[in-house]
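PROTEIN DATA CARD
Card holder: Cytochrome P450 2W1
Chain length: 399
Origin: Podarcis lilfordi
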Amino acid sequence: MDPTVITLSLHELFLGLDFYDSVIDLASGPCSTSESLATDLHLLLRTIRFQLLASTRTCPCFILGFIHLGEPFILRTFNTAPTNITFALLFGERFDYKDPIFTTLLRLIDEVMCLLGSPFLHLFNFYPFLGFLFNAHKILLKRIEDVRIIIREYIKTSKQDINANSLKSYTDALVFKQREDTTKRENLFNDDNLIASILDLVMAGTETTATTLQWAVLLMMKYPKIQKKVQEEIGRVVKPGHWATYDDRKDMPYTNAVIHEVQRFITLLPHVPRSTSADTHFRGYFLPKGTMVIPSLTSVLLDRSHWETPHEFNPNHFLDADGKFVKKEAFMPFSLGRRNCIGESLAKMELFLFFTGLLQKFTFQPPPGLTETDLDLTVPKTTFTLRPQPQLTCAIPLE
Ligand code: HEM
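Structure generated from the sequence above:
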């Protein structure tokens, strides 16, 4: 497949639009034109709440429904819920966490993320003629193809069942647009581009938020005083029997600061390679069109001149002397510019709602026999996203 076609497609799809706008724009078929952005965000909130309810209502078990309260379980358990939100958006259905398609996709995403970080893959990128020596890129392409096979099935089903008056998913919206688009000379919404767009979201819109949530829980275990302060704030702002709303973050400066600090501290996605789309002069250097550029978000997120204690987990980075939340210019985990993260608003909302929902119900503690100091904040191996070491947590119910 021609990569420029994929880029063009994504660019066209998302250009100048927030992700939701683009979904809504695509989905604004004959009957849904009256639906406002607010309604869609509301629906999304309901989806997220449903996810939380689905997980906590299965108590005395936790998220996966088979973990006993207070007993240790793996941090990766937290991957399920954020991943399911993105899948629900893409495919129009929420998966059961044991659904074979769901578990297969989770496994494939995991393998792709590990392979993307493989040093052999980087070597192959720089010296493709040595490809016969390496295997990582071949396995990577195979795993991506496996994901494509699943996506193709969803597109096929969408084409069969699509109802222009009720588009249920991003896939439906793209298929709808494809039909509209056949009249145009350039068929941007061809099948290859549809698959590429969905694949991009499957990869970029799952592991990222999910891993951040894992880190958030790990950091709360590591810093119980901070966890307690968050829980106290939740207790002050959120009425018993209710979940926090995204709007509540304005009244929850400490919680908001903690979530921002999690994102800053973990520098989740430090290097996303891009290439110059035109000949570029930058700080005395000439970068011809097509030059690979790898920005370093770490250099900003851990910059000494911007952060008081860059290598320490310190929510005060986002609080003023009165405890009010302060925005920081150097906070850019979603990057900047025209190709910045299109899922930023979704990710922020998910992180806030999941994090507050979890801490409203549970206190997270290291497993028996371990203390906070035993918890490991180093990154295990090279993966595309910087993940925490595989570790266990215990969820102790509040009340
Ligand atoms: C904590 C969560 C997330 C973080 C930290 C994050 C961060 C990033 C970063 C740094 C980039 C590269 C931007 C650039 O090169 O300038 C990116 C790209 C992207 N993100 Fe996210 N992201 C997150 C969640 C999401 C979610 C939830 C979605 C969608 C549902 C998403 C979809 C994408 C897509 C499609 C791209 C590629 C955009 C393009 O190629 O133009 N991300 N993200």
